[in-house]
Amino acid sequence: MNGAESLVSTLITGGIEACFTNPGTSEMHIVAALDRAPEMRGVLALFEGVVTGAADGYARMAGKPACTLLHLGPGLANGLANLHNASRAQVPIVNVVGQHASYHLRHDAPLTADIEAIARPYSKWLRTSCSALEVGRDAAEAIVAARTAPGRIATLIVPADVAWSEGGAIAKVPKLPVPPVPATKTVERAAAMLRTGSRTGLLIAGRALYGNGLAAAGRIAAATGGKLLAPYAFTRIGRGAGTAIVERIPYVLEQAAEKLKEFRQLILVGAPAPVAYFAYPGKNSVPVAPECEVHTLARPGEDCVGALDSLVTALSPRGAQPLVEEPERPPLPSGEITLPGLAAVVAALLPEDAIVVDESMTSGRGMMAAARGAPPHDWLANTGGSIGIAMPLAVGAAVACPDRRVLCLSADGSGMYTAQALWTMARESLDITTVVFANRAYTVLKHEFFNLGFGNPGPRALDLFEIGRPDLDWVSLAKGMGVPGSRVTTLEGFARALRAGFASEGPVLIEVGL
Predict the structure, then answer these.
(1) 52-65 tens-digit pLDDT
(2) Going by C-beta distance under 8 Å and a sequence separation of 6 or more, which residues neighbour residue 430?
(3) Apex CA 334: angle with CA 331 and CA 340, to 5°?
(4) Does residue 10 contact residue 170 with C-beta atoms inside 8 Å?
(5) Using one digit for the tens of pLDDT, what is the confidence trace for 215-268?
(6) What's the CA gap between 356 and 19, in Å, rounded?
(7) Does the reported pTM lie above 0.90?
(8) Which of 15, 40, 56, 38 is CA-nearest to residue 395?
(9) What whole-number distance in Å separates Cα of residue 336 and Cα of residue 65?
(10) How confident is the model at residue 316 (pLDDT cuts 50, 70, 90)?
């Protein structure tokens, strides 16, 4: 058994079932090992940013890591933007990167790079395997590191001679560490705050935003009058009819401050304290009111669900039923395209148990609110602010959940960062309906230009924020990558295309002209 075979076999033994990849010469022995391992699904992408974003989406929905396989330092560098998002999402990924054979490095061949230096900012665990005998053990430790709460990126660098040398051994994956539950006094402090009657928000993240965690949070809110909040940059949230009511903190600083000004107490459950994405001259970067007391019930890495369960026990909310979203769908609108109209169409047609991947910061800003009463579904967001996440994230979510329909909401500008994901959707026959809002501009940058005190942009500045001349043709782009598409100009047309997309087998793209 060579090193590559021991690597792949150990990953499979450790429960990893999917490998998202764009390999090269240095990784050919690992590819050969994958060729002999039907238990591992290999998913090819045409750009490494799709690879890393797909691994993120897979982890969010599967609750366990996939692995990547990237080609040397440049391949890793191409994937860094979405590794940044994945690190902020706090999801588990085993990030495997090939390296030149150890004896080849001294020649400083064209693709030679300091891979450890490139990987270090986004890797909570990082190692270069030194021998075929050790690579299986290294892979096992990478799995444990990735699955250590709340979820981490573990990067394993495998030199080509380690992969092809004999002497490999399959390693047993050690027992996964159990995340700690917060101390009793920490729970008691949160309970005491909620009993005061002072206006209290619970800012929840991670596993507290879906499943049992969200149900427990809903009981707490119902019993105490506390309000459940989600960060703007959340990883995954369970939503729809019957789920606990959670309000998202807005992206815009002034809107966030307006939403949070009522609270005199804020309890953090797996979430950091709110902060603006950027600094603005003369404005406070913290939207929380100065007189608001902030208490951390559970830090990232602690058992958020266990913390909420302990808080339920401490409060003893007898008979308290969670305040949940009522089933409600808006009627299908008609006429010219408007942003509220588009949101209403999505809310009216969203299938039960759908997964919504959302990177439509301006055109799709009203989507979540409109769909709150739709059948139960999951919503995934951009956690790190690096754009180009939606389509890759949708790929990973669809691979993880093949029986669920995925709706991908993308802007045209951010979609161009990783449009290659459409090809992977077609190749893998993934049930993804991608909606591209074609406003032909980086609209959010126009707002930011104004917010920074410059007023409306002049013609030269405006030219840097608009992406027309020529206009992008998303229907043709999608067709060229094997995805059927259509362009819609009315709300009736959007409804027809969306309904057809949800009913289709394989991917579909809808370009919405704005």
Answers:
(1) 999 999 999 999 99
(2) 394, 395, 398, 399, 402, 406, 424, 506, 507
(3) 70
(4) yes
(5) 999 999 999 999 999 999 999 999 999 999 999 999 999 999 999 999 999 999
(6) 23
(7) yes
(8) 56
(9) 43
(10) confident
